[in-house]
Amino acid sequence: MNIIKNKIKSYIFFTFLISWLLWLPGILQSFSLIDLSNKLTFSLGMIGTIIPSVIGLILLINEKQLKKALIDLFRFRLDLWIILSILILPLAIIITHIINIFFLKGTVPIITETYKIPFQFIIILIIAGPLGEEIGWRGFLQSKIKEKYLSVITGLIVGLIWAIWHLPIFLIKEMPHRKLPLDQFIITLILISIIISFFQIRAKSGIWPALIIHTFVNLTMEVTPLYNEKEHTLWIIANCVLFLTVIILIVLELIENIQKSHTSTN
Question: What are the domain boundaries of the chain?
Fold first, then answer.
């Protein structure tokens, strides 16, 4: 157990240290404390976003061979949990817009050039967050924490760490996070982390549930942005929908554990 704790501490320490050091020039530039090119600070910022997966992969390779680590991370089996992982975010966004349109008299989202969405999904998956983070956050960190806690508690812990790690990037004016509402963003990350944890622990498909759900979250910002409306009403609705989803998952997990306890006693 002490070995696992030390690995978790090492992962968190080096991930935060290296990412935040890479983001520091951009923060100083944003407050006019140093004079660097915007391209340089943006590049350093983007490199900082892949550090979670870099550190996670290094630690995983230290435990097992590279081939075995990659197989464990990217094995795929199409089952109910993977299908639900694919559907959960689109359904949540559809429900969000229905509530906004019919109950709050919001506007109908106009999606143009829908043929681009599959390509956007692939691009976002590879270079805009999911692959650069999820090998670490879910492939390494969550896999260690889940040995002690229920999936929803594991997701909450990882979500809090994940949210704190993001904070400095909001201070960099060249990064897209700067235009997002910080409070709603943090709430979303924590809720999404719990949802990811629930599905990933049950699916037998490596980190694919995390990659799929994370990519859909980022894709939403491109296709039907939640932050364009006044006072971020749409984003607040989305977080309420996600919160209710988490409540349902908690109930399901409690029922699942009760059934397991009854089975073991019998």
Answer: 2-265
